[in-house]
Amino acid sequence: MIAANIESHLQQVRSRIQAACARASRPPDQVELIAVSKKQPADAIRAAYQLGQRAFGESYVQEALDKMAQLTDLDIEWHFIGRVQANKTRQIATHFDWVHSLADPAHARRLNAQRPADAPPLKVCLEVNLSGESSKEGVDPANVADLLAVCDALTGLRVRGLMTLPAPTEDEAVQRQPFAALRHLRDRLATPARPLSDLSMGMSDDLEAAILEGATFVRIGTAIFGPRPTH
User: Fold this and answer.
1) Distance (Å, rounded) from C-alpha 72 to C-alpha 92?
2) β-pairing verdict for 98-102 and 122-127
3) Per-residue model confidence as pLDDT tens digits over 81-109
4) Which pLDDT tens digit goes with each residue over 145-199?
């Protein structure tokens, strides 16, 4: 039954992405779906994988490592989307392909130093706090250029773009504002050598607004897997 639900939900999310891309006059292949699988069992990830999903997002390192150990037969692209903690950087650098939530120069240096020498550079997005709320994670927009400069000197990292997690609202016009702000920030900071081509923004309730403003990754959990288990 779980697999049947995931199949139906995944089809619905893919249809929403296609419809939003059509509204934005963008090719659907410009938007990659990250299935946010935190708090979901490995069997749910396997079911989504069998339906063609390849990118999965996790927020808790130990939970992710446990599931990775159960899914070693699958060529999953693992995205770390949670808060980066200094005591977890080695595991993140070793086991993940992407980090969407880098916001601290010290964490950048640790991830760089701890990335295995035989692995490709760790692809990262810098998390930007556009609301200015101290309770929110992310680097202040005024400090993104400094963090980029730090990362540019680190050969074990490759900054691919920016990420944001705005406050929830049901008004699409309001939803679009922080996504547009992130796009404008990216446009100001991009260079030919470092185009910052990726914008990681949009979740289950606002993916349309994000795609209309240029998202290249949408991070979708509830709309695929249903509510997260509480146990």
Assistant:
1) 16
2) parallel
3) 999 999 999 999 999 999 999 999 999 99
4) 999 999 999 999 999 999 999 999 999 999 999 999 999 999 999 999 999 999 9
Burial (Cβ within 10 Å: 0-12, 13-18, ≥19) of residue 210: buried
CA 50/CA 32 separation, integer angstroms: 17
Q: List the structure tokens of 166.
A: 């705005």
pLDDT digits (tens, 9 = 90+) for 213-227: 999 999 999 999 988
Structure token pair of residue 49: 């994988």
- Residue with the two structure tokens 């240029």: 214
Taking alpha carbons only, the member of 45, 37, 34 closest to residue 72 is 45
Cβ-contact 64, 84 below 8 angstroms = no
C-alpha to C-alpha distance for 99 and 194, rounded to whole angstroms: 17
pTM, two decimals, is 0.96
Tokens for 151, please give them.
């990362």
- The CA distance from 164 to 209, in Å, is 13
Given a contact cutoff of 8 angstroms between Cβ atoms, the answer to whether 127 and 138 are in contact is yes
Q: What is the DSSP string of 65-101?
A: HHHHHH-TTS--EEEE-S---GGGHHHHHHH-SEEEE
Q: For residue 214, give both structure tokens.
A: 């240029």
Two tokens at 152? 């540019």
